[in-house]
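Fold it.
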Amino acid sequence: MRVGLFVTCLADLMRPSVAFAAVKLLEDAGCTVEVPEAQTCCGQPALNSGDSTDARAIAKQVIQAFEGFDAVVGPSGSCMGTLRQDYPAMFADDPAWRARAEDLSRRSHELLSFLTDVLKVERIDVRHDARVTYHDSCAGLREMGVRAQPRKLLAGVAGLELVEMKDTEVCCGFGGTFCVKYPEISTKMVDDKIANIEASGAGTVLGGDLGCLLNIAGRIQRRGLPIRVMHTAELLAGFGQEPSIGEPGKH
């Protein structure tokens, strides 16, 4: 299967190892992976800020960049939710572009759901000796239906103990521009999330969206807590020795 990898802005700029992990997981599952150079941001920040003109222009570029692939896969429920859910609605008044957006929507998948639901990957041969907990991001969970898939793959990791935290499905306070517009509320939300991570007894928190993970990692770093933060794809790809997200001087 020929797969186009949607790298995402945050992976490109802040955590390239997430994209490399995605490539490894997809290739190990038998896919041919390509990374179109013409891809850019998914347009979500512009869309969420009410800038529909720029959001549509960005969407057109993304649609064109990923035409012809059997599937378009990204390590982010948030970005892939934009491609799948928002792009067709952006072009409701333009039948030609709406058809192209709907075609992309049908082929767009979050990475771990693609591995489990489409490629039927049952287990990944990797070992990671640690107690971890998992944060369900809002977009991945509610827009893309990503919940059981990462847990299924993590259950097969040798040496790994997954401990569920309280309120795992509650927002971490990132919410894209929400954390900028409402910093006090965002800080309270991420502090609540970190309290639940600590209570789980896990030394590592995993997730599927870098925005959430950067938000959590930043607050953990500022509070000086000994908790690692990693994207689930990194662990599954055997990149368990990568520095924690947000570690000073790294990524």
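The chain has a mean pLDDT of 95.
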